[in-house]
Design goal:
3-stranded antiparallel beta sheet; Tetrahydropterin Synthase, Chain A; 21% strand; GTP Cyclohydrolase I, Chain A, domain 1; single chain; 266 residues; Helicase, Ruva Protein, domain 3; alpha+beta
Length: 266
């Protein structure tokens, strides 16, 4: 049967696949749009399988804040060319809308919902496409920031409302300085112990007495905590004060209660 340009355009609008892929799918499906969509979907799975060993180091980070809930995700691909495509960014936001509508809790739950959508995107782009990050936070006040390259961002929950510029500066700080945790209290025990051991070994290599190793290691750990916890980091825009002091200047009772950060480069 004859496949018209209108048919191809219609299938392309339905699937987002390329014009030639749509035309081929319609021919194979003998003009049946439902079958053609299945063919496009299956092609996506085949592309995904073939490119499973490739790395998806480009992409876009997007977020949405709805009341006291915030959502952030990254849709990743192989090349900057695809990442900057308007349709790719639109797909990321469509997936985010699904997450928001379902108030989805974590990445596994989101993938159970949108796994086929991500796979289909591989077929449309011809690249490996994956969803490496998704976060949902809930707090009385939320702000977020995505860097201009769209490859990294942070979403932070505060215990109470703050001036928008203060919250935004804290989000930019977290995005730029990549703290491991909010404060020492929520830093993973495994990270703390690893840093202690690194400190001991460094002191040992420097020839320090064995009896002094633990004390030296604790000093190095304190420095690590200061540099790698958001509340204790020196503020980028004013290194004379910590992030905690910066927040306290705006509201002495405010504190950070949730923090997630993602970077495609890490």
């Amino acid at each position: 049967m004859e496949i018209t340009a209108a048919d191809v355009a219609k299938l392309r609008k339905m699937t987002g696949a390329g014009m030639m892929d749509c035309k081929a799918a319609l021919k194979d499906a003998e003009g049946d749009f439902d079958k053609a969509k299945d063919i496009i979907r299956e092609k996506g799975k085949l592309v995904a399988d073939k490119r499973a060993d490739r790395t998806a180091t480009e992409g876009v980070v997007v977020y949405k804040i709805v009341g006291q809930k915030g959502y952030m995700l990254c849709l990743a691909c192989e090349t900057d060319f695809v990442a900057k495509n308007e349709e790719f960014g639109k797909s990321a936001n469509e997936i985010l809308d699904i997450a928001v509508a379902g108030d989805i809790a974590d990445l596994d739950a989101l993938m159970a919902k949108v796994g086929d959508v991500v796979t289909e995107k591989s077929g449309q782009t011809g690249e490996k496409v994956e969803l490496p990050f998704y976060a949902r936070v809930e707090a009385p006040f939320i702000d977020a920031y995505v860097h201009t390259n769209k490859k990294l961002g942070s979403i932070i929950g505060f215990s109470k409302s703050l001036p928008v510029e203060v919250a935004h500066d804290v989000c930019m700080q977290a995005t730029a300085m990549a703290p491991v945790s909010i404060d020492a209290a929520d830093m993973p025990a495994a990270v703390l112990e690893k840093e202690r051991e690194i400190g001991r070994e460094q002191a040992r290599q420097e020839g320090k007495p064995e009896a002094m190793l633990d004390k030296i290691a604790e000093g190095k750990l304190a420095k690590f905590i200061k540099e790698n916890t958001l509340m204790n980091q020196s503020l980028v825009k004013d290194p004379k004060k910590s992030v905690a002091q910066f927040i306290a200047e705006a509201d002495k009772d405010a504190r950070i209660v949730a923090y997630r950060r993602f970077s495609l480069n890490d």
